Amino acid sequence: PPKHKKLYKTEHDTSMKPLPTDDYNTGTRQSEMEGYAGEDTQQGSSEPVARAGWNSKIEYFLAQVGFSVGLGNVWRFPYLCHQNGGGSFILLYVLLMLVVGIPLFFLELAAGQAIRQGSIGVWKYISPRLAGIGYSSCVVCFFVALYYNVILAWSIFYLGNSFQFPLPWEQCPKQGNLTVKECDKSTPTSYFWYRKALDITDSIDEVGSFNPYIICCLLAAWTIVCLGMFKGIKSSVKVMYFSSIFPYVVLFCFLVRGLLLDGALDGIAYMFYPKLEIWADVQVWRQAATQVFFALGLGFGSIIAYSSYNPKNNNCHRDAFTVSSINFLTSVLASLVVFSVLGFRAKKKALECVASNMKELSDQFLSNNVDTNLMPSFNYSDPSSVALEVYRDWFNQYGSKVPGNLTDCDLEKEMQQGVEGTGLAFIAFTEAMSLLPGSPFWSALFFLMLLNLGLSTMFGTMEGILAPLTDRFKTLANNKTKFTIFSCIVGFLIGLLFSQRCGNYFVMMFDDYSATLPLIIVVVFETFSVSWLYGADRFLDDIEAMLGWRPHVIYKYLWKYICLLAMLGLLGATTIRMFIKRPTYLAWNRETASEEYLEYPGWALAVMALLIIFAMMPVPVGLIHAVLQDRTKQTARGTETAGQYRIVSTDDNCETPMTELSQRNVLDKPGRPVDEGEILLKEMDLLYFATSMYFPQS
């Protein structure tokens, strides 16, 4: 065993115990040190009976990767990469992941694995005053689960509509002999998304009726989650064998198919084209840090919950680097897929633009409205033979001098349309797939991939709710199956809010404001608690006792300074941005058949504030509750010792200096020396106690 260093413990911090190790925890099983099998035997008194465990390392990796790799890797990272400097953004992302993301990821993995409880138990074990951090994580997980499952419902709706030819979003519907006006003004995919799938209102103020199709799909999504979580990780991990691996199969299929498309290389070049000047933009740093933060799933409590099922000697340091690397490579793979397909879509639309302009130019020339010297040298009578670059060169030189409505067919402008969030998945990418031969097959494959990506993340999010609460409350632990079903029913009922015609606007509100600020605050508290209150050196000592080797000292400085300052900076930048710029949302205007940004009304801002306050309320409440409990105990202890004479019974569990000293001996790890000065103080307290028993007047 490694040689332990001294455990420094101040007088005012008696609530903080060293993390448990296999040597001192009386409920620890030998099988933990032998592998992943046999995890179902009883733990110590602080854990529920028969706590589950992973059957193999593969199961654990599938769970962690499945949770961290989600929809954001597919529709958020590519957009940020394209908008913020391409290759330069990727370098910035990697830098922030190395100095902030991975150290914090390692911190949560180590804490969960050492204490073997959910987020509530972990922070309560370190100090009862920190228990509110775990409750805040549970609240945020619940908020995220509510709207995240709605996105799965949308994926189920599109998956069900993919099994028909032609796809319903390939062409505009007709009313009699006329094309529907709203679809004619926009595109078939935009019309299907906003009118057929969502039947959306013009603003968040217009509530509208419930959408029966989305309600049915939402019920199906919650049913799948409930069945997957029915028996905890034992059942969810069986689903993850498919849901965590299948998306990679689909991404590689799309990559191969996408690279064979005309315009794919143009799309990839636009995405990765480096713009080094973006490093001077503070907002780009904020967006990169936020993406690292959410990509790894920090603060949710799910990382802690999953790692708590590991054996104590599992190499969580290696796991932190492995999972983070897989997450980053998945984001890059998804970006290649997205922009190869979007490049094909953009080039096809740009060439259609060229053909339309050439027809307009021919009509103008036949009408003798165009000077012969302005006419292009290429064969404009055959638009298919005109290269996009050649047309743009001619247009930039003579386009403004030619009468008519000629436009610049900009490839990059076409690629920027609807490349973020739901706009990417349900409009831009959907339109691109409709252009492919065998479009129903590719469409079904894509939405099945989205469904599985979301399911793996939902399992982790639900585990971030269920594991801490069942660890904390024995009644819930004894009725975990009923509690799981009850949670899913409550989630479905509250989720009906998002199935209204204005439900998409509430999804955007929850996505932007219910999780971002609270999670950043949670991670700030986590980092500060471990590195400063508990002590980074003590935490590294505990990791050394657990793993058998000591992590590099650089983690001490990363946790204490770099990570903490980075999270505080991100918190400040996010808060300032919220107050400087009034929050807006993307709405669909039925009359103009176009998207527009609208400001949230006053009542919506109040809802946002309540969501943030409610998510953060457990932290100060937990602190106040712990302080009041300490004062109550001190008052009760003072009342007991107020009498002049006292009968001491060895059968009572009364607290004496000897009891405290013996408890300290139990809590200290074997092989770790206790400070001699502290022992002397304890002995003096014992002598004073014995003297006061026999000579009370002295």
Automatic annotation (TrEMBL):
It is a multi-pass membrane protein. It is found in: Membrane. The chain crosses the membrane at residues 60-78, 90-111, 132-159, 212-233, 245-272, 292-309, 321-342, 441-462, 483-501, 513-536, 557-580, 600-628. One of its GO terms (cellular component) is plasma membrane. One of its GO terms (biological process) is sodium ion transmembrane transport. GO terms for molecular function: metal ion binding; symporter activity. Na(+) binds at G66, V69, N73, N327, L453. Keywords: Membrane, Metal-binding, Sodium, Symport, Transmembrane, Transmembrane helix, Transport. InterPro entries: Na/ntran_symport (IPR000175), SNS_sf (IPR037272). Its main location: membrane. Signal peptide: none annotated. SUPFAM superfamilies: SNF-like. Residues 1-48 are annotated as: Disordered. The keyword Magnesium does not apply. The keyword Membrane applies. It comes from the Eukaryota. Belongs to the sodium:neurotransmitter symporter (SNF) (TC 2.A.22) family. This is Transporter. The gene is LOC117749176.
